[in-house]
Amino acid sequence: MSATTRTTTTTKGLGVSLGATLSTITALRICLAFTKDVSTYLQYEQLLSSPLTSYTRLQEGLFLFNHDVDPYSGGLFYHSPLYLSIFSTIIPNSRFIASLLWTFADALGAWALVQIWRARQGVSSPTSRDSLVAVSYLLNPYTLLPSLALSTSSLENTLTLLAIMLASQRLHSPSLLALALLITLNPSSILLLAPVLLLLAHPTGPKSNLASPSTGSVLTTPLLKKTVLPLFAEFFAYIAVLVGASALTSGGWSWVGQNVFAGVLLPDLTPNTGLWWYFFTEMFDHFRPFFLMVFTMHLLIYIAPICVKFQHDPLFATLLLQGILGTFKAYPTLADPGLFIAMVSVFPEIYSHLRHPIVTTLLHIHAALLLPLFNHLWLAHGAGNANFFYASTLVFACANGAGVLDCLWAGLRVGIEKLSTGEKASEDVEEEWTVVQE
Amino acid sequence: MESPPTKQTTAQATLVPPPPPPARENPVKRFLGRLKASPATKIRRRKAMNAKIHKNLGWLKLLLFIVGYVWMLVIPYPDLGRKTYSDENALQPAQVHTSYNWGDVRKADKYLEGLESLVAANATSERIATHLSDEFAKLGLLTATQAYNLSTTNDLSSGVNTYAILRSPRISGAEAILVGASWLSRTGEGDGTLNLRGVSTVLSIASFLRRSSHWAKDIIFVVSDGYMDGMQAFLTTYHGQTQSNIQAQPLRHSSGVIWTAMAIDYPAHSFSHLGVFHEALNGRLPNADLLHSFQLISRYAGGVPVIMYDHLDWREHPALRKQFDWVTPKWLPRSIRDRKELKTFAYHARNVWRHWGYQARGKASGIHGLMRQYRIDAFTMFALPAVGPHGFHAIGKTIESTLRTMNNLLERLHASVFFYTLTAPDRFIKIGNYLPSAVIVSVAMMFTGLGFWVDAGWERILVPGGKALAIGGKALAIGETAFRGEDRWKQRSRPVLAVLMIMALTHALGGALYTLCTTAVFLQNIPILLPLISLLIFGVPIILSSFIAPSASSQISKTLQALNLSFASTIISITTVLNFSLAALLCALLGLPLALGSSAAPTRSSPSSSGYPLKYPVYTLYALLGYGFLTLGLLYSPNLVVQAIQGGVRDWEAFGVWFVPLFCGVYVPLVVQAGVVVLLA
Amino acid sequence: MKSLCFTALILSLITPAWTTTPTEQFYEELSFRNLKDGRVATRFSFKTVLNGSVPRDPSTLGQEDQSQHYRLFPLAMGQILREYALTELHLTLNAGNWDYDRWGYLDEPSVGTGAELWTWMADGAPSSIDERWEGTRNALGGLFCSSLGGLNDKRTTSPESVFRPEGDLPDWGKPHRLRHASLASENVCTENLTPFIKLLPCKALSGIATLLNPHRLFDADWHGLGVHVVWNEHTGVEISLVIQAVLNPFRFSQEKTIEWSFNSLFKKQVERQCPIASASTLSVSFPAGESWSLEPQGSKSEGGVSLYDLAQAQYPFDLQAKASTDLSTSVHEDFKPPLRVQRALNGPSQAYGRLSVSFSNTGAAPVQALYLETMPWLVQFYLHTLTASANGTENGELLSHIQYTPAVPHGKPATVQLEVHVPAYTEVLLTMEVAKSFLRYTDHPPDAQRGWDLPPAVVIPFLVEQNSSSNAISLRKLPRMYTNSLLVDLATPDFSMPYNVIIFTCSLIAFLFGSVFNMLTRNFVVVSLKDDSETEKP
After folding, report:
1. Which of B647, C28, C129, C202 could form an SS bridge with C280, CB 3.0 to 4.6 Å?
2. Any signal peptide, and if so, which residues (chain C) (predicted)?
3. Does A269 touch chain C (CB under 8 A)?
4. What number is the ipTM of this complex?
5. Which residues in chain B (521-580) have CB-CB distances under 8 A to chain C?
6. What's the pLDDT tens digit per position in B247-269?
7. CA distance B412 to chain C (A)
8. Beta strands in B373-511 (DSSP E)
């Protein structure tokens, strides 16, 4: 991660215009879609699509749905009914169309990410880093592969980016709508609700206040009352509408247990890149509910502190919470940490303060190679047992956690620098002053 | 939380005065003083420590390299391993009374005569297959033949398999054992020696097993045509896989899940030992319990001594001493050469070397090797040709008893280890005793890489002495070396993006190399094209590197070396688990060479200094290490190289052996990167 | 003893039950079929008819049942039948894989591997159908010393169109319901035979039951026990106890002549006739075109079948059968089945696989097959990947009437029921992708690495007959066939790991959580490093 991003401070972008980058990469993917159906090779890869995001399961659900069998009556389908309604009505259900759709979704996501970057810089005109930001999302293997495997997590990533983009462009209702849609599709994204609301409410919006923490610390009761509450009300209205729509499409409430609570009750123990599956495979039955509760609480517990600490820069809070999601959510795929890594490219100001970037990078390389190898060693070759893959998920969790810690530290550290050094160049000061946490 | 913490932060981020010097007189007090030292002191200590580590990093790396390599060398040392043991209690090896008798031997002889007459009349594969299938049918087994053809880029092989299924009484037929024999013996990797006795053994065993009712699993007899191809065709069809370059008839009869299998290879008239071949494709191995059981059974049920491969133990056959001279050279004094440990070491070393030969190249040492990919634990028993004393009777009893052991299994073999190194039929090394060697080397490489990474991040700038002195006197940021006099270090950012571009380019080059290697044109005229391609790979980096501005080059070189080493070390440390032999090979080829990289260059050359003279010779060395050796090999013995390349490509296309893609896509690029490092240094 | 009988007689005379006690008949029948490959398929059938009796009306389950008096009918079974008001019951315990190619059909179709139990019972009882089903399971399990309790809700289905009632169903104005379950891993042995023999009126003391020698019976290539209770409107409740075996007379003998006798097959002979049997018959049949010599001769023989009436036979009775022709050992498809059905679960991965079923029709008439797949939730279907291909070319028209109920995790199994049209001389291949479940470590059996046995699928072939005069197409239903059972590997966790996993995962989470909150809460200070380093020197 940080190896690539660190460079971007010096290299002034790729010197290629955003449009060019987007179009070339999209064109390449379209050619790929025409020549060969990659998704069939990747459809069962457990790293790329979890039970909640697998395209195969989505198709199974659609098939049952179209043949008047309740897809939620079985134990295979956990997608939201909205997917059913979309794919059974608007979008024809074929792999080729799907691969095109996923391609465009990625392009859209990259574009949204660039918009976020521009909004943060407060410019509307193209900047030199645009294409770099786009590439960090489009060619990032963590986001590219799941999209090739047609995992719906890519679509959810795009929605996330859209919601954040609209929020940083101060378009209240659209962003809230996008967010509501995202959360109905993937309930665990509820973590992003608070920071996005803050982002909408914040006076300086997405502008970077990391360097000056004192400015724009906005978390005051009037603001909460005046701005956030109505926003939340609007959001809630959207949610209500969407839930109603879901109930209508699926003709019942059976989906609630299968879709909404899947991330909490962990009905399917299929391995993924996260920490939950093996923990609850090995868990004693009488402790299961307790630890399910603990793990869910643990996810939610990060929201308040991060939002409070970074109230001066809600966009950064969003980044951190996305990182937390990618590390700790119940059914992660590579796409979740991938989104976090891609979003880091929007915050160049922190690179010089990342704590141990090289360590994090190496952890990521190791994990990225170990995960697929050990997954196959266990499930296909039958030589290594489950512990091998479990160990590699631990390494991966370390890598993601280290990434979050790096950013967290850097985000806090930036605030101190100015104060300590004043107008002097930081390198000279390094020698006589250093900044620590006491 | 109405007053956010950040406010405090800014408020409290004030200057802390330097701590008072702690009390000197009392060591205890001083110690306590250190414990509650101010942050400043702690940081200073930490920095000093880091500085120390970085200063001695060189020694540390050297130590690690030495330990790693030495460890690899002593792997065959007897005390490193232990006797094999059986983890799965159900196996009960050699616990049954065998009843394969001379009547069955007579049958085997009859079958042999039949086959020999067919061979004498040089009958076609179909003819032989139908003959075999008729023989099976006479025994009342379900049987059929399967014609296949397997086409690779520059080779097409076809043949007819014969298989028969003994439906064991009273069982659901959900589990099965496979007894196989390839038409061609594994002698010389299928050089044409016929495995007639192996096939007739299978037939006689079939006729024998039919009489007993205590089999808990179906038994599948397969006589596969060719050496490996037939079995590959059979297995893919049996498991419902489709391999694009294999056309095979569907199987008329089918049985359950195959857990264990054995391949019988009995080429010559009679044999003295039974050799175990166990390496499967891509360096995978069968469960150790199976091999342990077999060597027990062969000793105690069959009465036949077991050896590794076709290696006779020269402690029992002094005549073979010369085969071991490469381990214990003649110039060693006899007193040393005749030491028992050394003899054992030499014997083990030969086995381990052979094992690494198969595993590192990912080659299977027999048809058993094709089965592991379907989670079948299998091995080949090779009847070592000799003038006696053993024949059908011994091998029959051994097979019967082994089948009984396999029949006892209630679960898949899972208890014992899958990762091990056999040094002798009854001795093996646990993964914990050999894996660390490669890991240590990779750690050393990682350290080297990190060292370069740090160096790449700092540049020396000359500053007027006054200011330097005013500041000077201390080692600073992490990784900073001891700080001398008037010049000081300034942090600078590393050109990672450019470096990543270079790495991507080299790997693309490797990809191109791979696509070239798998074309028919290349495979048919290797002697002409190989040098050309090598030249291309040699030239491209020189040309490209000339475009890089000399000012940036030295730093790019450092960063490239850092990432290159880190990447290589990652590759190695991950490969250790999957295929230790390959990892060891990579350690030997990449470890030191990559680390030494630009050390010939003046270290930390300031931008002004222009390269170093040895550049091109060293680069050429890298070229030789990476791909040039093949061209050199052409000069030495063309056939060897040509066969090696063609064989490698065929293994990849027919059986999915990863060696060639890895070589082209990973190994060559890594070495080329090291070369680029030198070019830019 | 005698007095006791007397009092019993008196009692029975004065109780009104006597008048209602229906008359009972007992028929025993033994049949041998010589197969081409030298094996002998034998079938013992003991049928007891309870004339004029009717099954218990479930609505009366609440109140006291009428007292039961049987002379021949097995009381243990009678009690179970009335306790749970079962109209029809079929229980089979089979060991081995029935080879339709060589052994063809018996008149007893239930040859699926393992245990299979299905019952028809009417609704309307105070207790629910499923409660009664569970009770029946456990009662029968206890009676026959087999673990039928394993046929629990995770295995139970009700495919009513496949398992039609074989008798009549009384009309109580309440619908009848089917419960079916099968357990492939259950196999049959002596401890099941002993209680089985206890149910026979003559036990194993006389009649053909004398031949039931466990040592030989359970050494057969295939053997099975069956209990079938049906209600016939005209006769009444019938229970038939069936034992089938495919014996291999010359597994040990080397010579090629086929020759067997009761003695060589069972190491027994029929000592005396069962006195209370209304009829005891023996039939021996031969493959077409083989001439056999029998000693003693049959009372009458037609069409390669010779019949004996054991009532007239003189005892001890032993039968010598000898074929004049030598054993022709090449594999003959003597009884060409209408369909060859092969089922396999492919794919090396433990996460997913492909189920493939091939129907090959070697006959000249097209066959319409009703296919029923019952799958525990361990293996879950991707129904949208279901494809049918005839001789390699994909063709969706071959499939029709697909009914599917998805499996519920840790709950009921999935059932797929469909009709396959198999044209003449073609092989139809069904393939479907499946997902293999990942279980909690407590869900795994002790021998987790063995895998799980999946029950055999059921096929009912219908011969499509088109009579030349009028082009009316008629379907002739053939007895149902069973496919082979399957073994599926499920990925196993490391069973020694629970504590380690809890410790590792929790400490990792705790570490990350701790450092995040550490950073969030602690304050920054700027520290001066500029003082002299004397303090460092000791």
Report:
1. C28
2. 1-19
3. yes
4. 0.90
5. none
6. 999 998 989 999 999 999 999 99
7. 6
8. 377-386, 420-424, 427-430, 458-462, 487-491
Residue B263 to residue B372: CA distance in whole angstroms: 13
Range B645-666 average pLDDT = 94
Choose, out of C505, C511, C529, the residue to mutate when testing the contact with A (most A CBs < 10 Å).
Answer: C505
With 50 as the cut, is the pLDDT of residue B83 above it?
A: yes
B509-B513-B515 Cα angle (round to 5):
115
Q: What is the CA radius of gyration of chain C?
A: 30
Q: Which residues contact A400 (CB under 8 A, 6 or more apart)?
A: A323, A326, A327, A337, A340
With respect to residue A418, please indicate whether it lies within any of the assigned structural domains.
no
Which of B4, B414, B497 has the CB atom closest to A7's CB atom? B497
- CA dist C341 and C320 (Å) reads 36
Residue C416 structure tokens: 């797929």
All residues of chain A having their beta carbon less than 8 Å from the beta carbon of residue B567 are: 365
The reply to whether C501 touches chain A by the CB within 8 Å rule is yes
pLDDT of residue B487: 52
Asked whether the beta carbons of residue C346 and residue B143 sit closer than 8 angstroms, the reply is no
Task: Tell me the two tokens of residue C494.
Answer: 């490391």
Q: Output B611 or B458, whichever has higher pLDDT.
A: B458
Q: How far away is chain A from the Cα of B563, in angstroms, using its nearest Cα?
A: 10
Residue A114: domain span: 13-346
Interface touch C487/B256, C-beta < 8 Å: yes
**Cα separation, A95 vs A39, whole angstroms:** 8
DSSP string for residues in A68-99: T--GGGSSS--S-HHHHHIIIIIS---HHHHH
**Which neighbouring-strand residues pair with C270?**
C317
- Name the CATH topology of C337-488: Immunoglobulin-like (2.60.40)
**Nearest-10 crossing angle of helices A152-168, A193-201:** 20
Q: Is residue A354 part of a domain?
A: no
Question: What burial letters (b/e) apply to B467-496, b meaning 16+ CB within 10 Å?
Answer: ebeebbebbbbebbbebeeeebbeeebbbb
| Backbone dihedral angles phi then psi of residue C382, each to the nearest 5 degrees | -100, 90
C425/C339 Cα distance (integer angstroms): 10
Cβ-Cβ contacts under 8 Å for C479 (sequence gap 6 or more): C105, C109
Q: pLDDT tier at B12 (50, 70, 90 boundaries)?
A: very low
Whether C523 contacts chain A with CB within 8 A: yes
Q: Which of B260, B164, B262, B252 is nearest to B217 (CA)?
A: B260
Q: How many domains does chain A have?
A: 1
In a domain, A307, yes or no: yes
Residues A55, A40: contact at Cβ < 8 Å? no
C-alpha–C-alpha distance, residues A152 and A102, integer Å: 9
Considering CB atoms only, which of C380, C497, C511 is closest to A75?
A: C380
CB spacing of A370 vs B574 below 8 angstroms: yes
Q: Where are the domains of chain C?
A: 19-323, 337-488, 494-526
Averaged pLDDT, B290-319:
89
Q: pLDDT tens digits, residue range B152-173?
A: 988 899 999 999 999 998 888 8
Q: Chain-centre distance of CA C473, in angstroms?
A: 32
In chain B, what are the domains?
A: 38-73+435-461+495-680 (no CATH), 85-309+365-425 (3.40.630.10), 315-361 (no CATH)
Q: What is the mean pLDDT of each run of 10 residues along chain C (538 residues)?
A: 51 45 86 85 93 89 85 92 94 91 80 93 90 94 90 91 92 92 87 92 91 91 93 92 89 69 90 91 84 84 86 89 66 65 90 93 89 94 94 89 92 93 92 94 90 93 80 83 92 91 95 94 77 40
Q: Is C525 on the interface with B (CB under 8 A)?
A: yes
The residue written with tokens 């993924």 in the block is: A272
Contact A56 C433 (CB under 8 A): yes
